[in-house]
Amino acid sequence: MEANILIKQGRIITGQGAFVADIAIRDEQIAAIGTGLPEKETDRVIDADGLFVLPGAVDPHTHIQLDTGIYRTADDWAIGTRVAAAGGVTTVIDFATQFPGQTVQEGVRARHDEIGDKALIDYGLHCMLTDLPASDAELRQWHADLLELGVPASKLYTTYRPNYYQDDDNLLRAFRAAAATGVLTMMHAENDAIVSAETARLVTAGQTGLAFHGTARPALAEAEAVHRLLFLAAAARAPLYVVHSSTAQAVTLIGQARRQGQPAIAESCPQYLFLDESVYAGPHPERAIMQPPLRSRENVAREQALLQQGWINSIGTDHCEYTLAQKTAVDDFTKTPGGIPSLETSLPLLFTFASSGKLPLTRLVQLISTNPARIFGLYPRKGALQPGSDADIVLYDPSGMQMITAGALHGVSGYTPYEGMQVTGRVRMTISRGRIVYDDGAFPTSGGGRFVPGTPVETAALPW
User: Fold this and answer.
1) DSSP code for 37
2) Cα distance between residue 148 and residue 429, in whole Å
3) Residue 201 and residue 321 in one domain
4) Do both 341 and 426 map to the same domain?
5) Is residue 452 part of a domain?
6) Is 354 exposed, middle or buried (0-12, 13-18, 19+ CB in 10 A)?
7) What is the pLDDT along the chain (464 residues), one digit of tens a residue?
8) How many domains, the chain?
9) In 10 A of CB 346, how many CB atoms?
10) Backbone torsion region of residue 94, taken as left when φ is above 0, otherwise alpha when ψ lies between -120 and 50, otherwise beta
11) Which end of the chain is less packed: N or C, by CB atoms within 10 Å?
12) Co-location of 129 and 204 in the same domain
C-alpha cells in the first residue's frame, strides 16, 4: 500500500551530484527534499543513515514472459517484476511484439492483456516489428499509432531469419517512417549472412555443442551491422539506438557517429562488461547462451574503458529468464534458447564497479536511471529524485560483501551467469510510486504496477 514516508539522512545520489538530506513522499510522489523535514503526518520514518538513496533503476531492455514463437520463458509478469524490485529496478521497459498478420495496435494491446494486473512495478513498452506492411504510408501510420499508444520506440533485427530479420530495404523504409514521426528505432545488430555461414560451417563439422555458441556469432558480425545501420539511419535522418553493444568496436563506431552529430545511442549490458568468452570453455557454457555472445577478455577491458570515458550512454540487462532445464535440454547451440537472467544482479554488479573508484556514482545513476528515462520519454516522472517525480527510490547498503548465488535470487531460472561473484553491498529497500515493494528480502505487496506511456524525445538534444 502507498503511504506517506519520510526517508531521513540518506546519502542521495542523482545524476548531478551527491548530498545528505531527507526525502518526503506523499501521494505516490516525492513531495520535498531537504534537511530536518518534519515527521508529522508520516506513516513511516525510514532511517537511511549510512545508506545510498538512488532513483529507481529504469531498465530499458527486458524480456519478461517472452514468447518467440519457438521458445517461451518460464516467468510471468508477477515473477519478473518481483525480480526487478529485488534488484532496485522500479521501471522496466519491455517489448510488445507485432507478430505476422497483426498491426502494431493489436500487438501492443495483446501485450497489455498478458500483463494484466500482475506487474509489481511500473512498466513501459517498445514494439518489435516483424512483418512490415508493403505500403510506406501504412508503415508510417504504424509508427504514428505507436506514439498514440505511448510506445515511442520500435525494434528491428538484422538477424534471426526468417522470424525477425529485416533486409536493408525494409530497414531503410522503417528508418524513414521513424524519422517522419519521431519514433526511436532500436536495433539488434548482427550480420545475418556471417552468422548463418559460421553456423553452417560448425554444423557441417559436427561442432554444435554449447561450447561453440560464441564462435557462431563473431564480433565482426556485430561491427559490420552497426556500421551499416549507422549509414542507413543517417541517410534517413533517423535516430538510432543500438541494443546490447557487445564489442568495443561497435561502441566506438556509434560514439564516433555521435560526435559527428548523428543521433546515435549505445546501450551495453552487465554481461558484456563483467563476463568473457572463457565461460564457453568452462563447465557451464549454458549460463552464457545469449545473442550477441560473450567476447574476449581484452574486449571486456576495452568496453569497460569506453564506459568510463562516456562512450556508452545507457545500460539495460536484456533480461530473459529461461530455466536451467531449457538451457541444458540438448547440447546443441542451434537448438538452445538464448537469453540470461540479469535484472536482480545488474545494480550490485555496477555499484561494485563504480564504488571501486572506476566510475562516479553520479555517472552510474545516469546510465541505469536518468538516461534511459530521458531517451524513452519518461523523464522527469522517472529517473529523477526531485519534487513532483514519482517516488521511485532505492536504498542501497554499501557495507559488506555479498556472493551472488542462484539460490539467493528470486527468479525461476535456477541459475545465474554470475554465480560466485562477489559484490559490494546490497539493495535494502525498493520503493515504487511510494509503495514499498521490496524490503530486505521480503515483498510486502503484490501487483500495483502501471503502464507509463513514453513520449518522443529529440535524441540529438540529449546530454551526451
Assistant:
1) -
2) 35
3) yes
4) no
5) no
6) buried
7) 557 999 999 999 999 999 999 999 999 999 999 999 999 889 999 999 999 999 999 999 999 999 988 899 999 999 999 999 999 999 999 999 999 999 999 999 999 999 999 999 999 999 999 999 999 999 999 999 999 999 999 999 999 988 899 999 999 999 999 999 999 999 999 999 999 999 999 999 999 999 999 999 999 999 999 999 999 999 999 999 999 999 999 999 999 999 999 999 999 999 999 999 999 999 999 999 999 999 999 999 999 999 999 999 999 999 999 999 999 999 999 999 999 999 999 999 999 999 999 999 999 999 999 999 999 999 999 999 999 999 999 999 999 999 999 999 999 999 999 999 999 999 999 999 999 999 999 999 999 999 999 999 877 667 56
8) 2
9) 26
10) beta
11) N
12) yes
The residue behind cell 512495478 is 121
CA-closest candidate to residue 188, choices 249, 231, 229? 229
Indicate if 50 and 61 belong to the same structural domain.
no
> Residue 302 maps to which CATH number?
3.20.20.140
Q: Which residues contact 346 (CB under 8 A, 6 or more apart)?
A: 57, 59, 87, 89, 270, 315, 317, 368
Q: Phi then psi for 68, rounded to 5 degrees? A: -90, -5
- Structural contact between residues 315 and 367, judged by C-beta atoms closer than 8 angstroms: yes
pTM: 0.97
How far, in Å, are 153, 261, 312, 317, 367 from residue 456 at the CA level? 8, 19, 21, 22, 19
Residue 37 lies in a domain: yes
Alpha helices by DSSP H, listed for 149-296, are: 168-181, 192-204, 219-236, 248-259, 270-274
Bridging pattern class, strands 393-403 and 422-432? antiparallel
Q: 3-class SS at 113?
A: helix
Supply 130's cell numbers. Answer: 516483424
User: Are the beta carbons of 86 and 120 closer than 8 angstroms?
Assistant: no
- Asked if the peptide bond before residue 348 counts as cis, ω within 30 degrees of 0, the response is no
Does residue 453 lie in a domain region? no
Helix extents (H) in 95-213: 104-115, 136-148, 168-181, 192-204
Shared domain for 290 and 409, answered yes or no, is no
Could you tell me if residue 458 is inside a domain? no
3-state secondary structure 353-404: HHHHHHCCHHHHHHHHHHHHHHHCCCCCCCCCCCCCCECCEEEEEEEEEEEC
Q: Are 416 and 404 in contact (CB under 8 A)?
A: yes
288 and 417 housed in the same domain:
no
Which element (helix H / strand E) includes 347?
helix 346-353
The boundaries of the domain holding residue 89 are 56-384
